[in-house]
Design goal:
Helix content: 55-70%
Number of domains: 1
Shape: flat
Largest sheet: none
Number of strands: 0
CATH topology: Serine Threonine Protein Phosphatase 5, Tetratricopeptide repeat
């Protein structure tokens, strides 16, 4: 997959396509992965938005439960990052 080779933008595009346009077993996990990529980059607002999409589109999925937990984590971490810093590794 794209994320495994460092093409995070490509991974986001692919996972978003799967999560938003296809209705498969993998769709909730694909949208959750978008949030995970943003979170790994220190982009909490984007991660939260992606996780919220999982909850809205697939509320009964296992990924929705994980998304709720990850939203809480992202909110906590974004409050603990000093202004001007992204929280991403340098």
């Amino acid at each position: 997959m794209a994320a495994g080779h460092g093409d995070l933008a490509g991974a986001i595009e692919l996972y978003t396509l799967v999560g938003e346009t296809l209705d498969t077993y993998y769709s909730p996990s694909a949208l959750e992965a978008v949030g995970d990529i943003y979170a790994s980059q220190g982009k909490a607002p984007e991660a939260i938005q992606a996780y919220e999409q999982v909850i809205l589109k697939y509320p009964q999925s296992v990924s929705a439960g994980e998304a709720r937990r990850k939203i809480d984590v992202a909110k906590r971490e974004s409050r603990s990052v000093p202004a001007g810093e992204t929280g991403a590794a340098k």
